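Exercise 7.
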Amino acid sequence: MGSVSAADLERYCYCPLSWQLGREAEVRSEALAKGSARHAELGDGLSSIVLEERNAGLLERAAVWISILATALAILGLFHFSTSDPVLRGQVLSAMALVWILLATIILYRSASAPDPSLVEGRERGIAMFAILGIATSLNAVPVFEVTHDQVVAYQAVSVVLLLMASFSLYVSNHMTERAGRTRRRAKVSDGIAYIGEGSGQGEVLRSLDLGLTGRPDYVLETDEGLVPVEVKTGRTPRGPLFSHILQLAAYCQLVEENRGAVPYGIIRYDGREDVIPFDERLRSLLRAKLGDMQENLDGAPAHRNHQRPGKCRSCSRRERCPERLE
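Solution. The predicted structure, written as tokens, is:
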């Protein structure tokens, strides 16, 4: 059995004869070039979402641990603080309380005003709680050791530096999260991204040895229901999903299911509409049947035009060489 791609299947379902003529002599067009460029741009945008959200998560975790360390140092410094100089003690406590409260206020404000609070809610509030806890603990700490003024200042100075680092990490993390959110809205992607087929983050070619099928979906979403392949079409928006597009999407659903996990449905995205296509037994059977027909043509059986639409023939890039074209 020869191997065919999901893109070949789409062309075959559009018109078997056009597909066969295309195998004999490849035809390139401006529309195809524009479509390829848009798919590469989409892939680059999705890759930037994945990278920025991953880095934002790392920075948020770093901010949490830095804040914890700063809290520990502040408390340790106060536990070592001598009661023999109450004026200095009051000054240090006041300065530390001001820093903690300021940090807590900034973090809570950023969490409340984030464009997608679900991404950072809890993490930022957790940092804020650490800050508030540090204030309360510092203000009520009981000194138990006699140490020098310089040692106390060193503890507090390191603590303040760590707090500044945590604040900067959180600021950069929020900036990355907001930028990724804007890219998500432009790409109309809200779920997790499990796979990207084109662009700088190009994924591996998926294969079905059983069906002799290969392909790379544009991208795959990770939803609560399972993995969802998405096929993006950049040409005109038809009144309904085209049969050839549905079969191409079915091929991607099959490939993702065999290689990555269960697929409940797929999505075809046109410029003006999205169509959700269930990957049910009917579509699975239709996919196998079309792949069987295609294999017969690959084995030598002649292909023929499968429609009676003159307009479709007129827009075909292989029209001039087609013996069955409609006038």
